[in-house]
Structures are given as C-alpha cells and as structure tokens.
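Hi,

Apologies if this is the wrong queue. I'm a grad student, and the batch job for SRBD1 protein from Glareola pratincola produced an output file that my downstream script rejects. I'm not sure whether the problem is my script or the file. Here is the sequence I used:
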Amino acid sequence: MSSLPRRLKSEAKAHTSEDDELPSFLNSSSESEEEEEEWEPKSKIAKRRQLPKKNEAKTKKVAASRSAVSRKKVKKVAIKEEMDVSLPIAPAEDNRMQLLKPKEEDVGTKPKTLNQINSFYGKNAKSLESDEKPSTSIPVAGNQVKCEKSEEDFGSDEPPFKKIKSSTCPEGKPVKNLGGNKIKEEFEMNWDIVQALSEITNVEPWVCANLIRLFQEENTIPFIARYRKELINNLEADALREVQQTLEELRTVAKKTHTMIQKLKKEGKLSGCLLTALLNCRTLEELDHVSAPYKTGSKGTKAQRAKQLGLEPAALSLLQNPMELNLFSYIRPNTKGLSNIQEVEAGVQHILADIFAKDKDTLDFIRKLCQQRYISIQSALAKVSSKSGNEKDIDKFQLYHEFSCNIKNIQHHQILAINRGENLKILTVKVNIPDGVKNEFCWWCVNERWRPKQFLKPELMRILRNSVEDAYKRLIYPLLCREFRSKLTSDAEKESVMMFGRNLRQLLLTSPVRGRTLMGVDPGYKHGCKLAIISPTSQILHTDVVYLHSGQGFREAEKIKRLLLQYNCSTVVIGNGTACRETEAYFADLIMKKYFAPLDVVYCIVSEAGASIYSVSPEASKEMPDLDPNLRSAVSIARRVQDPLAELVKIEPKHIGVGMYQ
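Support response: The file is valid. Your script probably expects a header line. Output copied below for reference.
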C-alpha cells in the first residue's frame, strides 16, 4: 500500500499543473463531476499507461519525505482526477485533432460535452496549431476516432451527386463534365471533334465530350444508357447509337485524311494550301473532292497543269497586287498553254477557280445559301432505256418518269426507288439549284470574300468574274449535288432499317393462339392445297393434299370434315399466297352452311412470306426430315399462328417481307 500513495501523489502534481492550462468550462465540468461521482475501490480504477522508469524513480524519492496525513489527501484527489480524465488526447499528426468516441453506456448522459468541445476548438484553434505538445484531456471517455469530415457531408438541402468511378476520376468525385470539352484524338484535324459531333447529331457539346470519353473507356451502350444517365443527359439508346456511328464516320474521315497527307508528302505533291484544305474536310465527299486530282493515274486538274506552266504567281498577284500584274510577260510562243494571251488568261482563271472551290469560308457560305432556297431533286426516264429495255422494269418506275420534289420534303422510300432506277439505268437523276443561288454567290465572292486589295483593270475584273463562275459551275455545283444525294441516301437507308425493326417487332410480338389444334392450309391451283394438322404442342398429327379449285370441291369437303372431326380441330389457318381468296371463299361458304357441325369452325389468314424458302432450308430438313417440302410450308403456316415468335425466328429477316425494300 505504501507504493500507491507515492505514485498517486506524483500524478496529482502533474494533473494540478495541467489543470492550470484548462479553460474555465472544462474546470467547471470536472468539479461538477467530482461532486456527483463516488469513490471506487482500486480494482475498479481504469489502468493507466505506465510512465518512464526515470520519472518513477524521481517520484519515489520525492514521495518518501512526505507525511502520512498528506498521503491520504493526495490519494483522494488522485482517484477523482483519474476518473475525470480517463484518456488524454494523443499527439495529432499534421496539426489535426483526434476526438474521443464516447462509450455506449455514456452516450446521452452529457449532451453538452460535444458542443463545449466544438466551442473550445473554435476559440483556441490558433493555440492548438502552434503547440506541438498535446493539451490536457477532454471529458469524453472511449476509443480514439478521427473526426475528419468534408464540408460536403454536412448540412445541405440538395441530394448528393452520384459517385462516378472512371479512369480519369478513380476516387469517384461527382462530376457533370469529365474534364472539359477538349478531347485529344489520334488524328488531329482543323475542326474540333466534339463541336462537329454536336452539330451533326444536335446533342449538347458536354454530352458529346462525355460520350467520347465513355466510348474510349470501352463502355457499352446498354451500360451507358442505364448507369451513366447523369453524364449523357438521359439520352435514349437509339440516340447513343447514332452518336457512336457519327463518331466512327468522323474518325474514318480523319484517318483517311492523314493517310492521304502521308501519301502526298511522299510523292512531293503536298503544299500548304492543300494541307489546310485536307484538314478542313469533314465528310468523305469533301475529301474526295479535294484529293481527286492528286490520285495516282489522274491526269491532274486544269489548275495543276496551269501551275506547272508557272502561272500561280500571276493568279496570286491578281488578288494581292493587281497594279503590278502584267499577263503579257507570261506569254511563251513555243510553249503549249502559254502561246497567246487567251491561254494565259485561261490558266490564271483555272488556278483562281481551284482556290475558290477549296476555300472553307466559300463552301460554308454556299451551303448556308442552299439551306434557305428551294432545292429540288428531279428524275426522268433515261433515253437509252426507253429504246432498249425490259418493259416490265420500266413500268415499275412509272411514278418517277417525270418526278420533281423539294429535297426537304421528299420521302425516304422515294429516294431509294430513284436510286434503284438510276442503278438499273432506267432513270436519270438531277439536283436542281436555282440560278438565284449562283448569282448571289458570284456577287458575294467578287465583292466581299475575294475582293482585290487594289483597283482592278476591266480585263482583270473580267478574269475574276469568269473564275468565280467557272468555280461554281465546274467544281462547287457537282460537289453540292454529291453532298445532297449522299445525305438523302444515308438518311433513307437509316429510316428503312428503323422501319424494318419496328415492323418486325410488331410481327414477332403478335399474340399466340395457345391450346388449340390447328389446320394449316397452303393454297394453290395446279398442285392443290396442302393441309397440315398440328396439336396444341406443335406436333404434326396429319398432312394431306386436297384439290379444291379443279371441280372436285364437294368431294374434298367430306375429306376435310372427316379430318376436322377426327382431330377435334376447329381453327383453319390459310396462307395469303396464290389462290388465297378462292380458298377463303370456299371455307367461308362451308362454315356459313354449318357443314362442319357440331364443330364451330373459324378461319384466319396469315402471311406466308418466307414459308417457301424455309421449307427447303437445312433447318426444316432437320426438323421434318420425312415430309415433302410442299407440306412443310403448310406446317410452318399453322405454327405461325400458334407461336409466331418461335416460328419466325427460323426464317432469315430479309425473307419475312416487312421492310421498306428487301
């Protein structure tokens, strides 16, 4: 027992020195606790961390000289102090405070403690940061827990963002934009891929930027549509597919452009103007327009031949410094193309026309102009086909022999029909751009875009006007026609696929007729009507052939009645092929006369598209090896009513016959 007072005495001194540093509210709380708490025996006192041995030796020497009376007082004070201050604050690293977590039995007993601690931190924040040593303990018992909460976790009326985990943001921060709209592509162009994608698809630029990044991270469209809605502004899956397809087209253009640049660089044909023109291309049509003259085997354009004769400085001088231009100095009597002033003027004109036709601003202006005007597509019967051609094919396209329609209003099926007629050389197709577009374009070029920097002589002004007209007629107009036709065809093909999908969906989701025995009828004249009776579980019960349209109708009716009664079949399914109407009239007449009594027989007509092709397919041979192909088609017709989905999936989609054009 003698060692206990000595140790407690030294601890009491230490605590009394620390109490001087405590703020007033902590001292008051400890005093109130002293009054409330009772003395506990030594066994219940919480064990404290042992102090270093050196300190213990010193405290023993000091305690030895004390009297017995003072030992009793020290004992009482030390126990109370130990109960009050159970666990000290550990030294915090990086100037961060670690709070103490209250024990379960203490929770709710002293609700003011946390507020007092918070106010203490607010008042003494500076002093806590400056002190390297920890201050005195805080009257909250329990385990040590770091209290590090970010500001966003505290009071906020708005719901928290969804945590998004990606390679660019692995910690899962909520972001609307995955790092700005600038995307670095493999092949750099003069246009920004995000802006180009946004303009073509009419989707917001930030959504396009997010989609490009998501596709780069190999996320699939179902995943993006379901789990990344906040990044794509809740776009539908169809819109995502369109964006993906457009993105692939733009990347294809960029890749082909850079391949062409490398090729021209090797051949030594690449110039600064050509490089700019190539990097401005956004579509394959524009790329073909710019690169066509430089392809292998090409004779070269008129502009290239004029440049080879050395007329490019004259053409540039006409625009930049026309006062010093003298075309007569370029005449070379013995050189073809420079022998007289007319040939020199023609060469300069070709070079200027080439410059105008490849200028981005000029092409943008003419496209914008065309959007505001009435542009029509016209088709007519080709002269060659009218002389020598299949009359049957020509009659197919009778609607389009004299056809004209605005390109904004033309239907998709009309575009496909015109294209097919043109491929068969039955129709000739032309895009009609009004003369007003040409006149306004020529005026804008001469007076605004390509206006010379100095006064032009009348003969030089004539060359400039002729160059603009030549550029429009020979280069720009064909380019516009190709662009219009290409866009119309592309849109029509997309729509035809969409329509096929819609029709096929409706066909496959047709309600099945379950639990009935069915008789399938594949009608015909010469080879008779093929019959097949199938059970409710699609098992083949009986097959036969009847000749209803060759004067034996009454005798065959007895046979049909016997089969229907034998298999208790009350539903007849008729295919809509040859002799469909006659077969329908035959069964309707017998039903009206109640010939099949006591059975209440009904009939329906179903599409037999693809049934003939299916009947001779390998799948049908495996499924019905012992049946004749003619009877297989009757089985297929019956099963199309019993379970349309299960039967139609056996047939190739192009043979089902629900699309715009097969």
